[in-house]
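Note to self: user wants both folds in one dump. Writing first protein now.
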Amino acid sequence: MKRKLIFFVMILSLTGLFTMQSCNEDEKSPVYEYGSFTDPVLLAPADGGFLNVTGTTVDLKWESTDSDGDPQSWDVYFGDNSEPDLFKTGQTTQSVTVNVTPGTEYFWRVETVDAKGVITTSPTWSFEVVNPAATMHMDLSWETLRQIKLLLLLPQLIQPVMRPMQVLTH
């Protein structure tokens, strides 16, 4: 047992000696410092917002700059799921037009790769396109001396259709 311990200590000592010998202060590896894009900032549409679109397109806009002044291009990810697919690669402006359908929630993000390969990714943003023809159901109730429940059926075109008021007593 003692021999194994002595052997182990000798191997450990020799390994340490060779490791320290291989470090030579004269050989310095180059250090490269790259500036990168600023994190993309959302300009439009608002994250988590609701859009009433006239037409079938929406402009996605963001802002990002490169500290080294390198050429800029962005990959845009867009779709109707929380992990959007690549929509456009090599976008050279900070805006892209996408087709949308009313009543659908969309998710998008941008990814920048500068000339030196430094990647900067935005958070995933979302917005929902409002369907103006959709019916909105509301159940309004409040309590006074007697509980009164008022049911309204309101299309989003603001043309209320009122149902008869029901008075509920306990």
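First done. Writing the second protein, which came from a different request thread.
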Amino acid sequence: MGYVVKTEGAWSKVMKDITDIHCHILPGADDGAADEEESLEMLSRLIATPHYPSMSSWTADRVRETCRRLEAAAREQIDPGLKIYPGQEIYYMDGVLDLLDEGKILTLADSPYTLMEFHPSISYAELYRIVRQIRQRGYLPILAHVERYRCLREKDGRTGELAEAGALLQMNYTAVTGAWHDRVSRWSRRMLLERQIHMLATDMHDRKHRPPEAELAMSWMEKHLDGGYIRELCRDNPGWHVRGKRVMDYTYDDDTIEIDLKEIFYALWHRILIILLAGILGGVIAGAYTRYMMTPVYTSSSMLLVLTKETTLSSLADLQIGSQLTNDYSVMTTSRPVLEEVIDNLGLQMDYEELERMITISNPEDTRILEISVEHPSPQMAMQIVNELSEVASEFIGDNMEVVPPKIIEEGIVPTEKTSPSTMRNTLLGILAGLFISGGIVVLMTVLNDSIKNEDDVERSPAGRKVPGRKGIDRHAERDDDGPEKRKLFL
């Protein structure tokens, strides 16, 4: 097997049998090696990962064939045991998971592992959501050059959350070699010290601008990391892909849709303005419908006092008998003969059952008072019905029960305020319905949708390629103080 760089000591011992899972070695496939001669000068055991999509639009079959041809040349000229596996560095956008399912995009060495690249400014909520969706489709995502993603550098703990969600984190060797004031390099070294990174790779493209440089990184790692972790980063973990084994033991049911509360929270927060607008819209619609479309209802009430004799109340027995009679009077007040007489007296165009639905009778606790309420769209008619009902019921009870008729102590009046519907209540219910429905849609989309819907996340292609229909990006990136690369656009 070969070495990425030829040095002495612990470096060469650790790097024996190294597997490089991220390199652009195929001649002419993308912005990597220009020809076979350049490819052969950069070889060790590796997985070739040309960009998807790329300007050359290579098919999966062409990548495989080129790997076989380059491997044959490398074995003849460099090392008979050298191995080159096919793969692709996939820039995540709408539809790539379907292409993976169809075999039009390659995983790493035909394993479940996929090398995924994202725009450097992708939000953490989107990145976390995508990792979950990739896992739900049965693939094991490796996040390429994680040092480039601003959302991971902004807050501690996010790398661990992604690992718990099923992602593996790959860092470039060159991320470690920046100056002490380089924020990205400081973050990268800290992640290695905290053992947050799963594997290192060269991400080599060519001999001049992005060669397979790893010696400086190894020099730093030898001083600060133990040999076991270095072997995991450079040899053991990357090697699992070509051995058909998993770096981590994940238990996952491909037929089950797993709902993650944190993912749902991020999705709801990301669309909070849409949800609030839906709530406001629901309130406006409900309020307008209540005010202009629904028929208002008015209520008029009267009160009857139940007496046991014509004299004043003088004994406890009178009170007890009066309380018992109120239950009988409540039933008799809404009896069919009483209601039909009210209908005839007022000339109402309804049957007694319809009138009964307009009437409410109540008896306040520990009293002999009957409260009669009538609801009607007309305030005048509500008053007329309740007063007529009180008189007819009083006479009917007195005649049929041979007792003192209930005394009308309060007549109904014309109501000035409608009883229902309540515009305020319905508006609040409309707001709640809008929030609930829009939130439910967001949750459903989060659980079922496996594509990015934010155009900013897919508008620009990653460094080192030009996507048809987009502005190109300079294949040779420059360093700045906020990241390992600074994109340069050209027409």
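Dump finished. Worth passing along: Residues 256 and 390 are 65 Å apart (CA to CA).
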